[in-house]
Amino acid sequence: MAQAMKDSKAELSKAPCLGRYDVQKPIVIMSDASNQALGTVLFQVQSDGLRRLVASKSRSLTDAESRWLPIAQSLRCTV
To answer: Angle 50-16-46 (CA atoms, 0-180°, nearest 5)?
Structure first.
């Protein structure tokens, strides 16, 4: 596990890590929710076909949100 964290940190600190948003490029939005938190990432497809991370957001669910149905939690990620 410690090696995985080191590898992740090394990859995230390589340039370029985060891309600039370009209104001309297609986007891909991925989101996920659990009973504790939700997160969303925004990628843009580059000219070589690879996805570049443009933005990300995550947070813990409120007490009320944690009791929502899973589909409602997933939808909340994109709003």
So the answer is: 25
Q: Which residues contact 78 (CB under 8 A, 6 or more apart)?
A: 29, 31, 40
Global pTM? 0.68
Q: What is the pLDDT of residues 16-29, one digit of tens each?
A: 778 889 999 999 99
d(CA 35, CA 72): 11
CA distance 32 to 78: 9
b/e map of 8-35 (b: 16 or more CB within 10 Å)? Answer: eeeeeeeeeeebeeeeeeeeeeebebee
